[in-house]
Amino acid sequence: MDIEGAGWAVLTQLLQRGMVRSRADFYRLTVEDLESLDRFARRSAENLHAAIQRSRTRPLARVLNALGIPQVGETTAIDLARWIARQVPPGEGWLGRVGESMRTIAREEPDRFAEVEGVGPTVSQALAGWFADEATSHVLDELAEVGVEPEPPMIPAPGTGGDGSDGGPLSGKTVVVTGTLDGFSREEAEEAIRAAGGKPAGSVSRKTDYLVAGPGAGSKLAKATELGIPVLDEDGFRRLLAGESSADEATGA
Amino acid sequence: VNDAEAQLAARLATDLERVLGAGIVVQDLEIEGEGPVTIRVACLVDGTTREIEVHGEAALDAIRDVVRLAAEVRLAAAFWQMVGPV
């Protein structure tokens, strides 16, 4: 994996030089700090610094996923972000308030984590343990202090399907996204599918209801075509999300 | 591997699981030696195997260093997850 000029070797240097000791330290790095790394030119340092700055406003689920809470993977992080966004209204100082709320719940009502969709006793216990532990529970506050302001999740209105009830335009449908979309990152497309009541998936199978294909689509497009799965371009995808057309009408690729 | 080594490996695996957290899998863990000790850990991070190798005069020294390095692996993985491309 390569992030705009950075690699594992860069991280190793940052760690070995003691320039990064916590997640919050990522956001304290300056262009000059990065430029001081071996084989790192000014341009690469500027690119990596810019990528770090952009990440300040990534979705909350991504921040929660990066905490590495045992038992909490990407899907649980998304569900946890939605749940906490209902408890703690987004706005100024949101991440700090989210951290404070998580700690309070962990301390006073740990069983409430089981209210998160898909979370059972084991994961609930892991969440409560993590947010009650002095060694880990303040990470969100530290990130808030260095200016991380995550984007709140889209919270579907009751009855639109994305809240678990029927009725969303993609309710009960499995959708795969492939290739590049102009108006959606992969994460945003998947979030939009969830918000419309659907389930995003990573591979095409007979259970796939739609494939959304942008430029650069490869084997997934070929497989969907072979299986006769409706293929949508970006416009078709938007219409489908808006509930403006049926699958057949929306087939655009 | 004698019983003591097996127990030590099991305890270390549990500690590593806690430190590494979700999304990082310990693929292999070896403890060699009874005086000076060498510990090797292979963990899978985002589809790539990362290896930790530590030498210590005693098992406890080596374990402490392994746990510290595992925390660094966790931090590096967090960096990818937070800063990496969408």
Helix percentage range of chain B: 40-55%
Regions of chain A with pLDDT < 50 over 5+ consecutive residues? 1-5, 247-253
Helix content class of chain A: 40-55%
The largest sheet of chain B is: 3 strands, antiparallel
The quaternary organization reads as heterodimer
Order of H and E elements of chain B: HEEEH
Count of alpha and pi helical runs of chain A: 13
Which ranges of chain B are low-confidence, i.e. pLDDT below 50, for 5 or more consecutive residues?
A: none
The assigned structural class of chain B equals: alpha+beta
Q: Report the C-alpha radius of gyration of chain A, rounded.
A: 20 Å
Mean pLDDT of chain A: 85
Category from helices, strands and their pairing of chain A? mainly alpha
Measure the end-to-end span of chain B.
45 Å
Describe this structure in words.
The complex is a heterodimer of chains A (253) and B (86). With 253 residues, chain A is mostly helical. Chain A has helices spanning 8-16, 23-26, 31-35, 42-54, 60-66, 74-87, 94-108, 121-132, 139-145, 186-195, 219-227, 234-241, 247-250; strands at 174-178, 199-201, 210-213, 231-232. Chain A has a 4-stranded parallel sheet with strand order 2-1-3-4, sandwiched between helices. Chain B is an alpha+beta fold and 86 residues long. Chain B is 50% helix and 31% strand. Chain B has 2 helices and 3 strands; from the N terminus they run αβββα. Chain B has a 3-stranded antiparallel sheet, covered by helices on one side. In chain B, strand 2 and strand 3 form a beta hairpin. In chain B, helix 1 (3-20) packs parallel to helix 2 (59-83). Chain B is elongated. The interface between A and B is medium-sized, with 32 and 24 residues.
